[in-house]
Write a structure and sequence with these properties.
Number of helices: 25
Structural class: alpha+beta
Number of strands: 26
Radius of gyration: 34 Å
Helix content: 25-40%
CATH architecture of the largest domain: 2-Layer Sandwich
CATH superfamily of the largest domain: DNA ligase/mRNA capping enzyme
Shape: globular
Bound molecules: 2-(butylsulfanyl)adenosine
Distance between the termini: 82 Å
């Protein structure tokens, strides 16, 4: 069946448009259309191709979603072998390389093209008359695997060359890789789906490209950088740097990190510059590559065995190393988080000696099954804390035991708890645990808690380090003379602090609850709890079920509160605080009717009300068991609007939320019994 000329022309136009947008988005990182516009062009092309199957061709962007699965990869013989590079590990080896090159060429200084050494996998792409016809892995250098169908799904690889200057047959060499952030996201998703996760971006890129089902590859965030062409493209250019510029014009991603430098000093300067920037680059590199820039000179130099004489890979110190786990400690952080940490036989990783590596949490240790005595791969990426990547199972000694998380806090012996929705276990003795001391004291004294003016970072450091204060209750036993003896304290400031400490004893129940630093209990929850229970005793003795009666307290928060008060160490500190004279006005527990019109409802206040201040209105709504939020959403029950209400009222109307004036609010509060 013949295809109408208009349809053919439209399909060609759509393909070119879509590929231009792909190029802007995936290669230049500068999107030119909205997702919606892109999708609409894409769908139009799909529909045209469905209506006229004769229009379908392998270089259509619609084919990037992945073809049918293969039984096995075919082999592709490389027209020119894919060689390897000689390595240098120190400056001396680079100087020797430069000297050999100068001598062989008989010149004083040499210009080099310098590039990052991408840590992905090498591939070769063949274009005939501008169209991608095949793509292969390096394999043994002579023969690779035919991964054409998979490579077509990589958006950064042009299916058709841009412009017109390219030779009729062009072979492009480059590296397929995964960006670090994409890798982290993909691994997280894989583990959520209980699918295979990968140790590093290179393995993830290799695993994704070597999928027999191209539809799987299509879902993986693969990227590509071109770094050269085969000899056939030679002739056209005189310098390697020109080749790279041309590749960029033909639509390939070529790294911005490339430079042309002079002599050995230029090479070493480049190496150091990239070394500094390495951690901040979006992709992993394992060194830099130097290539004599002149193609004529490259020819003269030629090859020795399997590597070119005109190029050199200057490697960075390895970021992974193998060592032995000598112990597994459990550290307690400032917030009580328990982190298992592997103690390692010292090993150099990325140029730094490493003796500890994080194991993150119990689930991770179990998943990786790290045991004392194991040989493990440790990895250090940039300034990130070193981590244990995996265990070398074949090296495991005979009698080892699986790691078990301690049942009690290794620092203070208190109960530990792991919330259902969290991977991290925590010590529940926030008020007592030495590991959490400084944090607990700072929070306790903070403005919205007990508001002890002048008790900041520096003082807390000193008080704890000199063992003058262990728990918040100890603050109330401090004498002005003791304070005056601290660094940076004069008599006057010591007296002021002593007065602030004394003053803080008169507080409110809500501030007191907030000051305890219970996980998930912020100011607003503390106020709700105070209002609901009226006294500290009833909060302490409430079980998780009772706690959930409080507006906005769900199971997670309730568990966290109950867990806190269940720990005897915390109760001892609370008793000591009360014994030290901390007092709050003991209000009667509020008896709001839970079926009143305000209980559990969410209000948003906007504009100036005629008689009530914002604080008064908030207080009265809360007294009736309602909640006051800052912004209007579908969850808002009422918007209370005063003068000049602005966008919140408009939003309420748009969402169909009831808008009240002050009189209507007061009426509602009356009905709720909170007049
Ligand atoms: S040029 C004839 N440039 O390094 C040499 N290779 O050891 C052709 N690689 O498998 C290679 N980044 O995958 C070249 N900018 C770069 C590179 C690079 C990474 C890899 C390549 C090859 C290995 C050579």
């Amino acid at each position: 069946m013949t295809v109408p000329a208009v349809a053919r022309a439209r399909a060609a136009a759509l393909r070119s448009l879509i590929e231009q947008h792909n190029h802007s988005y995936y290669v230049l990182d500068r999107p030119t259309v909205s997702d919606a516009e892109y999708d609409s062009l894409f769908r139009e092309l799909q529909q045209l191709e469905q209506a006229h199957p004769a229009l379908l061709s392998a270089d259509s962007p619609t084919q990037r979603v992945g073809a049918a699965p293969l039984a096995a990869f075919a082999e592709i013989r490389h027209a020119t072998p894919m060689l390897s590079l000689n390595n240098a590990f120190d400056d001396g080896e680079v100087a020797a390389f430069d000297q050999r090159v100068r001598e062989a060429l008989g010149v004083e200084t040499v210009e080099y093209a310098a590039e990052p050494k991408f840590d992905g996998l090498a591939i070769s792409l063949v274009y005939v008359d501008g169209v991608l016809v095949s793509g292969a892995t390096r394999g043994d250098g002579n023969t690779g695997e035919d991964v054409t169908a998979n490579l077509r799904t990589v958006r950064a690889i042009p299916l058709r060359l841009h412009g017109s200057g390219a030779p009729a047959r062009l072979e492009v060499r480059g590296e397929v890789l995964m960006f670090k952030a994409d890798f982290a996201r993909m691994n997280a998703r894989q583990s959520e789906l209980a699918e295979k996760t990968f140790a590093n971006p290179r393995n993830a890129a290799a695993g994704s490209l070597r999928q027999l089902d191209p539809r799987v590859t299509a879902t993986r965030p693969l990227k590509f950088f071109a770094y050269g062409t085969d000899a056939a493209a030679g002739g056209v250019f005189t310098r390697h740097s020109q080749t790279l510029d041309a590749l960029a014009e033909w639509g390939f991603p070529v790294t911005q990190e490339r430079r042309v430098v002079k002599g050995c000093n230029g090479l070493l300067e480049y190496y150091r510059e990239i070394g500094v920037r390495r951690a901040g680059l979006p992709f992993d590199i394992d060194g830099v590559v130097y290539k004599v820039d002149s193609l004529a000179a490259q020819n003269t130099l030629g090859f020795v065995s399997r590597a070119p004489r005109f190029a050199l890979a200057h490697k960075f110190p390895a970021e992974e190393a193998v060592t032995v786990v000598e112990g597994i400690d459990v550290q307690v952080g400032r917030t009580g988080a328990l982190t298992p940490v592997a103690r390692l036989a010292a090993v150099t990783v990325g140029g730094v000696s490493v003796t500890n590596a994080t194991l993150h949490n119990e689930d991770e240790v179990r998943r990786k099954d790290v045991r004392v005595g194991d040989s493990v791969v440790v990895r250090r990426a940039g300034d990130v804390i070193p981590e244990v990547v995996r265990v070398l199972a074949e090296k495991r000694p005979r009698s080892t035991a699986a790691f078990v998380m301690p049942q009690r806090c290794p620092v203070c012996g208190s109960a530990i708890r792991k919330a259902e929705d969290e991977a991290i276990a925590r010590c529940t003795a926030g008020l007592y645990c030495p590991a959490q001391r400084k944090q607990a004291l700072l929070h306790f004294a903070s403005r919205r808690a007990l508001d002890i003016e002048g008790l900041g970072d520096r003082l807390v450091e000193q008080l704890v380090d000199r063992d003058l204060v262990r728990t918040p209750a100890d603050i109330y036993a401090l004498k002005a003379e003791t304070l005056a003896a601290l660094d940076r304290m004069a008599e006057k400031s010591a007296a002021n602090l002593a007065a602030a400490i004394k003053k803080s004893k008169q507080t409110t129940l809500a501030r007191f609850i907030y000051a305890l630093g219970i996980r998930n209990v912020g100011e607003s929850t503390a106020q709700d709890l105070a209002r609901y229970f009226g006294g500290i005793d009833s909060v302490q003795s409430a079980d998780a079920e009772t706690l959930q009666q409080v507006p906005d307290v769900g199971p997670v928060v309730a568990q966290s509160i109950a867990g806190f008060f269940a720990e005897p160490h915390n109760r001892t500190v609370i008793d000591a605080l009360l014994a030290a004279g901390v007092r709050f006005e003991q209000r009667e527990a509020l008896k709001v009717s839970t079926d009143g019109p305000v209980y559990g409802k969410t209000f948003v206040l906007t504009g100036a009300l005629p008689t009530l201040t914002r604080d008064e209105a908030t207080q009265r709504i809360r007294d009736c068991g309602g909640k006051v939020a800052g912004s209007v959403s579908k969850k808002t029950d009422y918007v209370v609007a005063g003068a000049d209400p602005g966008s919140k009222q408009a939003k309420a109307i748009e969402l169909g939320v009831t808008v009240l004036d002050e009189a209507a609010l007061i009426e509602l509060l009356k009905q709720a019994g909170g007049a």
